Amino acid sequence: MNALQFETPGKVNIIKVDVPSIKPNEVLLKVHYIGICGTDLSTFRGLNPLVQYPVIPGHEISAEIVEVGSQVPAHITTGQLATANPYTHCGKCPSCKRRRYNACQYNETMGVQRGGAMQEYIILPWEKLLINEKLNKEQLALVEPLSVGFHAVARGTVTDIDTVLVIGCGMIGAGAIIRAALRGARVIAVDLDDHKLAIAKKLGAKHTINAGKDDLPECLRTITAGQGPDVVIEAVGSPATYVTAIEQVAFTGRVVYIGYAKNEVAFSTKLFVQKELDIRGSRNALPEDFVAVMNYMESGKLPLEDLITSKLAPAAVGQAMQDWSARPGEVIKLFVDFSK
């Protein structure tokens, strides 16, 4: 079967691999769509320190069950559509003991620390499946990235009395906007791209700010009557936005970081103490975040056509990655189509 491989930074190949055989507790899945995420872009650029090349990327999965092992529960059958939780957990580290499996010390995410899903067939333990026959193939491939944003909102303990600033309106930021709005918060979305900001409005943002054109601090002073946002969710991963989150959040506010800054960040640590801030990381997602995303999608409110930038044949991925690397602001979500 065909698989897509990042051989070295900047080099993408289509390779031949064997169709895997299942164990009694596993299922064989025919892949339909795999989303390409910001982590995959970092891997393509050679900026992901967790990856060893060559690697098959991909962990945003839409697939169909084609074979089940002898020990798989009877409610899991061939023909069902599914997505999957692509993370592992050890069950023994401090995170796992606290039931925060998403942040397992020894986690291995598909397509990062271990082989990914960008191939025609994949095998998974049945426990990792998320079956939902109310959602279509495109929706299922968006569950994982949106769940990361949903989890960040949970980390920020967002409620209906909060004003939430989301910095970055890609897929992860989109998830944060949706979840914060669902919780009744007033959401302010910030990005450099007007098209993404227009989509953020559709997703539930009350206010939008183009940080490349507008005076962000002044806009926030006006919107929040000088108070600042109660919660800032950083979904970009740049030193500038890391600092902006600390500077703009309200006194005694909460800052949630999702994105990895690739370079060191210099903070004025006085603000940590002076504002008595809660500064929190947010990694991956928990099973309940996946369920919350699917429940939201079942409502039919997700503007699917706005979020999918394009669908690609595997052979077109190399050029698409080069284009995305050159103009990262123009892409929300790329799908690789393995269904044909």
Automatic annotation (TrEMBL):
Annotated Alcohol dehydrogenase-like N-terminal domain residues: 23-129
InterPro entries according to UniProt: ADH-like_C, ADH-like_N, GroES-like_sf, NAD(P)-bd_dom_sf, Zn_alcohol_dh
Signal peptide: none
Span of domain Alcohol dehydrogenase-like C-terminal: 172-297
SUPFAM superfamilies hit by this protein: GroES-like (SSF50129), NAD(P)-binding Rossmann-fold domains (SSF51735)
The organism's place on the tree of life at top rank: Bacteria
Record carries keyword Membrane: no
Keyword entries, A-Z: Oxidoreductase
Pfam families listed in its UniProt record: ADH_N, ADH_zinc_N
An example Gene Ontology molecular-function term: oxidoreductase activity
UniProt name for this protein: Zinc-binding alcohol dehydrogenase family protein
